Amino acid sequence: MKTRTALSLLFIGLAVLALGGLFKMLHWPSANIQLVLGTLAQVTALVALALNVSRRQNVKELLER
Is 36 part of any domain? Predict the structure, then answer.
């Protein structure tokens, strides 16, 4: 997974997680699903970013991919 794609997935997961928290506070339906999906998206993105960082020696090279 490219670094930009992983970062995009990370921010999308963050947005879904924040909306899930809002839904949970307001006792609206589908809050649990949003919290799980947001968490899974963030974990996937963070694993992909960790793999990218471990494979690259230069930060500039990491951001270009």
Answer: yes
Instruction: Determine, yes or no, domain membership for 65.
Output: no
The dihedral built from the CA positions of residue 56, 43, 45 and 59, taken in this order, carries a sign that is: negative
Please classify residue 24 by burial: count the beta carbons closer than 10 Å to its beta carbon, then call 0-12 exposed, 13-18 middle and 19+ buried.
middle
Residue 36 CA from chain centroid, whole number: 12
Model pLDDT for residues 12-23, shown as the tens digit of each residue: 999 999 999 999
Contact 62, 3 (CB under 8 A): yes
Residue 40 lies in a domain: yes
User: Per the domain annotation, does 53 fall within a domain?
Assistant: yes
Could you tell me the pTM of the whole model? 0.82
Nearest to 34 by CA among 21, 46, 51, 52: 21
